[in-house]
Specification:
There is one protein chain. This protein has one domain: Ribonuclease Z/Hydroxyacylglutathione hydrolase-like (Metallo-beta-lactamase, Chain A). The chain is about 20% helix and about 30% strand. By secondary structure, the chain is of the alpha+beta class. It is globular. A 7-stranded mixed beta sheet has the order 1-2-3-4-5-8-9. Strands 10-11-12-13-14-15-16 form a 7-stranded mixed beta sheet. A two-stranded antiparallel sheet has the order 6-7. It is built from 9 helices and 16 strands.
């Protein structure tokens, strides 16, 4: 069982998959091979598969254990979900995620809070499971923390253009009475609070952790690939508002550059956690050497 201590807290990683599924030019549509060429030597093989040329994005949750709560941050892809645009996500039936949760000493019943940085399909999938033909909360004792603004946006969007992940992984949580709708600066307590980081979605948030002078931030999808520390201006296709996302990303990198706060990313290559350091007029990501 591997954990990362942060003062009196522990942080664990729950990995669902780690496969090269994302075409770089499809995901960053304004880029060309010439833009990527200077970076291939350090992107391959951990962030970019040298055979297919595709980007490798881990799908993972973080578990944070404080003195008072056990918190799951983002819930990955999920099983039995209709995701035809991503074959590796479509109608999965494996036990990888629940086994990985068990490997860090937890069952779904042990989770007190599920905190979704935003409501895209790879961050809400295990919110629910299929039971007797119905979508029910996977974590039956948890409150699910959603941004109210984010939830309202996707609920209303779904009324005119149905989205499977909202139907199967978000709305059932509200229907079960387990959704806690908050502002994007909400605090769980004085050691866990939200930080507004909009742009990728209407009200994306990061999650800040603090314990005994040790600090961390979980960045969600304000950046997807370490190339964006070198090029924070590179917009990802899923970004809701490209200009706001660029501004948020640059501000985040400036805020956390060399300030001692551990940055836990969602989709950077494993081990996915590290430090923002300066690199000329931009930044780079320096991975933490601890294996956890």
């Amino acid at each position: 069982m591997k954990h990362r201590l942060l003062g009196d807290m522990t942080i664990s990683r729950v990995l669902e998959m780690n496969t090269p599924d994302f075409d770089p030019y499809g995901f960053f549509p304004d880029t060309s091979p010439e833009d990527w060429e200077p970076h291939l030597h350090w992107l391959q093989p951990s962030a970019m598969d040298p055979v297919s040329g595709n980007l490798i994005f881990p799908m993972q949750s973080y578990v944070v254990r404080t003195k008072h709560h056990t918190i799951l941050v983002d819930s990955c892809v999920g099983n039995d979900k209709d995701r035809p645009h991503r074959p590796n996500w479509n109608h999965k039936t494996d036990t990888t995620y629940i086994d990985a949760l068990a490997a860090v000493g937890l069952a779904p019943e042990d989770i007190d809070y599920v905190m979704c940085t935003h409501l895209h399909p790879d961050h809400v999938g295990w919110n629910t499971k299929l039971l007797d033909g119905r979508w029910v909360p996977t974590f039956p004792n948890a409150e699910y923390v959603f941004s109210r603004k984010e939830f309202d946006y996707w609920r209303d969007f779904n009324k005119t253009r149905p989205l499977e992940h909202i139907i199967d992984s978000v709305l059932p949580i509200e229907e079960a009475g387990r959704a806690k709708l908050v502002a994007s600066d909400h605090a769980i307590d004085d050691s866990v609070w939200l930080e507004p980081t909009p742009g990728h979605t209407p009200d994306h948030f990061a999650i800040r952790l603090s314990s005994n002078g040790n600090e961390a931030v979980m960045s969600g999808d304000l950046m997807h690939c370490p190339i964006q520390t070198h090029h924070p201006e590179w917009a990802a296709r899923p970004d809701y508002d490209v200009e706001i996302a660029r501004t948020t990303r640059r501000a985040f990198l400036e805020r956390y550059c060399e300030n001692g706060v551990l940055v836990c990313t969602a989709h950077f290559p494993l081990p996915s956690a590290g430090w923002i350091v300066p690199d000329g007029n931009a930044f780079r990501f320096e991975y933490e050497e601890k294996d956890w």
